[in-house]
Amino acid sequence: MLDFLLNGQAHGDVAAKLMNADFDVNALRPYVGDDGRTYITVNQDGIATAVPLQGNAATATLRKDEWKQLDKAIIKAAKPRLRAVADVRSAGLTYTIPNGIGKTVLQTENIGDINPAVVSMDGLREGPNDRPQIGLTNLPLPIIHKDFSFSARQIATSQNAGSPIDTTSAELAGRRVAEEAEKLLLGVSTVADQYAYGGGTIYGYTDFPDRLTKTITSPTASGWTAATLVAEVLAMRDQSVAAYHYGPWMLYTGSSWDAYLDDDFKANGSLTLRERIKKIGGIQDVRRLDYLSGYTLIMVQMTSEVVREVIGMDITTVKWETQGGMLLNFKVMAIIVPQIRADQNGNTGIVHATV
Q1: R_g (Cα) of the chain, nearest Å
Q2: What is the dihedral of CA 88, 91, 92, 96, to 10 degrees?
Q3: Which domains does the chain have, with CATH numbers?
Q4: 84-93, 94-103, 187-196, range with greatest mean pLDDT
Q5: Mean pLDDT, to the nearest integer, of 30-51?
Q6: For the residues 106-124, what does the mean pLDDT come to?
Q7: CB half-sphere exposure, 311, CA atoms < 13 A
Q8: Phi-psi region of 261 (alpha: psi -120 to 50; beta: other; left: phi over 0)
Q9: pLDDT band at 133 (very low <50, low <70, confident <90, very high)
Q10: Of 39, 86, 184, 227, which residue is the least packed, with the fewest Cβ within 10 Å?
Q11: Gap between the Cα atoms of 44 and 209, Å rounded
């Protein structure tokens, strides 16, 4: 079955349901209530409300508790894979687009600086009368998604036996969606490498053109000590400050650094190298990321002018039927897109270091 939207018209059952529901994905999340009737959840004045089945909703097969079981399994599997994304979101660096599935591009502004103030004794000296330059940028809003399915017989067997459905496929799908969101933020996605659409491009920490770069010493090199890394992290902080970004910073490390970071900083000392680096002013934490390879380091100023996550749709599961209703298709999907930012002079608070 082919479902798509063309010139504002829906083609296909799933696309038609989304169009008729104003792109509310809850139209594809119907459930059977305790009274045997079919319901969908809609947002009414900020309150989630159960509404009886309308013509624009999918056919209900699952009970509400079964939807909860699926959602719980998917979110539980996704959370451990979203470490860098979680840091950005927990810092409040997000921009939420209501009903983001109905939009394909986010247009934002960047702004330049103005000249310094004038100093004079009587205030009569004429200074430059300037204004900041404002430019427009586009950010694509693709959907990250992964499918899985159950046969109608599997669902019926589960319901008749009173046993929970097997959520293994759902967990794997949720994990893959979360992994891709994390890789997009880091700039290491192979599926959507430098994803471009609508005149804009999605960049991450390691492929953003305006990021600061630095070469550091491999811990396997002759003469390397823990103090070498401390000095190089201090130099990375100085790079950020020189670009007018003063912290606070998060320092992310590649997987190969753990053996050195958790070793003693120096002989007869009580600190590990990781603890020593965390004592550097402005550094909030030192964290390993699964998808950073080797001895990579990334220092990120955790403020909205450097990075934020655009949330068009959090991790959500929808359902539709094919094969005459004998196959229940599910799609885990999310619109979680990194927006890496620099001012018009190309200054940013991201320092990407490699050996």
Answers
A1: 25
A2: 10
A3: 1-60 (no CATH), 212-306+344-354 (3.30.2320.10)
A4: 84-93
A5: 67
A6: 73
A7: 13
A8: alpha
A9: low
A10: 227
A11: 43
